């Protein structure tokens, strides 16, 4: 059985990841790095890919507002 995270949860994780990854003032703190590591891990586990870029692409594809006919994440090209 495969578990799939709810699309709203994925959207929250994407937002949190992007905020943590972009925060230049917080990037040097150990707590911010741990939070980013935690969100990265959760995104990877929630979507399947081990690579964070692939996990983000998968999460974005599954989140609210994603085009239902866009299968670019799934194509091998």
Explained architecture:
With 77 residues, the chain is mainly α. The chain is 58% helix and 0% strand. α1 crosses α3 (52-62). The N and C termini lie far apart (28 Å). The relative contact order is 0.18. The mean pLDDT is 80.
Q: What's the helix and strand layout?
A:
Layout: H1 7-22, H2 30-47, H3 52-62
Helix pairs in contact: 1-2, 1-3, 2-3
In short:
With 77 residues, the protein is mainly alpha-helical. It has helices spanning 7-22, 30-47, 52-62. Helix 1 runs antiparallel to helix 2 (30-47), helix 1 (7-22) crosses helix 3 (52-62) and helix 2 crosses helix 3.
Give the CA-based shape: globular
Give the % helix: 55-70%
Low-pLDDT windows of residues: none
- What structural class results from the helix and strand content? mainly alpha
Number of DSSP helical runs: 3
Q: Mean pLDDT, rounded to whole units?
A: 80
Cα gyration radius (Å): 13 Å
Distance between the termini: 28 Å
Question: Descriptors for this entry?
Answer:
0% strand, globular, mainly alpha, 3 helices, 58% helix, 77 residues
